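Appendix B, example 12.
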Amino acid sequence: MTKVGRPFSTETKCYCGLRAEKINSDITFLLDKVMLRFYTWFMKAPDSELRSHLTIEDQMRSRLRHEYEKMRVGEKRMQELASCYNEYMDLRDETAKRRERVLRILALVGFHGVPGDDTTLEPAVAGFTSSEEKLRANLPLWEAMQEYLSHVKEARIAEMEEFFGSMGFREGNRQAMESALKRHPEVFKTRKSKREKYISLR
C-alpha cells in the first residue's frame, strides 16, 4: 500500500547526474593537462649533459651545422692536397716505368759495371732480383731490341745480333729478330738501302 504524501521528485536525481558528469569532465580536463605537461617535459628531458636543453629538432639543426662545417673543411683540405696527390700518382707511374727499364737493361748488360769500372750495381739492384738468368728469361726479344734502338737512331740486324751475342743474350739471333719485326709493326719500322735493312723505332 502506497503511503499518501508528497510525490517522489526526479530533480535531485537529475541534479546528481549532471554534477557527476561535470566532475568527470573536470577530472578528464585536468588529467589531459597533466599528461600534456608531462609529455612536453619528457620530450625536453635531458638524456645527457650535452642535450639538456635541446629538443629533437634543435639536435638535428645543431648536427646539421656541425656536419656542414666539417664537410667544408674536408673539401678545402682535399683541394689543398689535390696537387700533392696528382704529383704522387705521376711519380708512381714514372717510377714503375723506370723500374721496368732498369730490369730490361740489367737483363741485357748484367749486374756489373762497364769494362774497366771497379763498381758494381749488385747492391743497388739487390731488391730487384738475384739472378741474371731469371731476368733474361723474362725479357721478350722485341723489348730487348726496343731498348737497343732507343740508344741509336737506327741499326742493322747484324749489328744487334753481334751486340746481343757479346752480352750473352742468346735469344737475339737473326731469325728471331726477323720474326719479332713482323709481330710488332707498331713498334718498329724498317727501310732498305743498298740491300741492307735498317731498323728504327716508330
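DSSP finds seven helices and three strands in the chain. The beta strands are 155-156, 188-193, 196-201.
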